[in-house]
Amino acid sequence: MVSTSGTSDISSVGNTDVIVIGGGPSGSTVSTLIAQQGYKVTLFEREHFPRFHIGESLIPETYWVLKRLNMLPKMRKTQFVKKHSVQFVTEKGKLSEPFYFSDNKPHECSQTWQVMRSEFDHMMIKNAAEHGVQVHEGVRVLEVLFEGTRAVGVKVADERGNVRDVFASVVVDASGQSSMIMSRLGLREWDQELKKAALWTYWEDAYRDKGRDEGATIVLQTQGKKGWFWYIPLHNNILSVGVVADYSYLFKDRETKDHEAVYFEEVAKCPGLQPRLEGAKRIAPYRAAKEYSYRSREVAGDGWVLVGDAFGFLDPLYSSGVLLALRSGELAADAVVAGLREGDTSGAKLGAWGPNYIQGMERMRRLVCEFYNGFSFGKFVKLYPQLKGHLTDLLIGDLFDEKVDDVVEPMNHIRRLQAEKSAALPVE
Known about the structure:
This protein has helices spanning 25-35, 62-68, 72-76, 101-104, 117-130, 180-185, 247-252, 259-267, 321-342, 347-350, 354-372, 377-383, 388-396, 408-424, and strands at residues 16-21, 41-45, 81-83, 85-89, 99-100, 112-114, 134-137, 140-147, 150-157, 163-173, 188-190, 196-204, 217-221, 227-234, 238-246, 281-282, 287-290, 294-296, 300-301, 304-306, 312-313. It is of the alpha+beta class.
């Protein structure tokens, strides 16, 4: 067993069945599930955990993957804030009807968590080691080794200066947004509609709701619907609060580029947020991420597969990032295990899960795009109360069931009505 602390020495690392690049949620998931089936898995992570990462809000469908990972007992023992719902606040500061997960699906899976990612990710990678994954932190993957179009291993370097080639039947790229294989093969496609950016920080003593609403993720629109804030209550009296808007609006078309000034200009445009920050103390620097929505043209190739952000990233709006990391890791793990058992590690075999996964990702993307195009949850539920359950299913992360497609035509109908209304307005 390789410790997940201290400095790794790779001089004695041998060949393995599967190499995983990156120890975030997707890498920890795929490696754990493959190791559970008795295969030798070696994971290389360039950083030492715990380390900072954004994306703190889980959604309920993560439950099923966490269960397979044997993570649920550990999660229940944490201080992580329990999350029961998501709530939306209009540009005028009006709270719409909350979406309580258990009202739609009365099961323990409907209670999830708001996590400090440094702690959650550390738990996940330690869990991988406990399941037999050979975890090496502080080790950089310099390149993925190919023989023709087939990935056959990686070249790695540790902090002591050791460099060596390690070979495997399958290489899983879970390297995050840097996505080594995607970048090498030129597979990245930027989302031309979701050219967003985010700016965030952390607060102490900000307002918290009580009872069932204490752990709710709150989405608050800014005036003119130019952007929105996330409001995520974490443990230890910490609140994660960030703004998302078009990249050009947030960072390019302004007189100031100072992050603090931009942040508070947007707070001033968000009447639902202002009272929540009264008396609060900022406890962290401002951080930014720009134009982050993309996807790979391929999910797998001969001897390689992409998972998590190494395949694609959607948008932080509905907190789908960790779910997509865990789900892609789970699906890829099952495909890798099947391929190893059958002696078939072709791209077709390793990527057989891709179409269904992408379809689920597209369902979430549609909901994201609708929001940015003026979609109102309150108006939708008022017009189609019978479909609130399906809308809640999407917010829960139940993305892989065709029943949720029942919301598509009503969304199209509302959009047509909006277009007709706009066309009827007099021209000034």
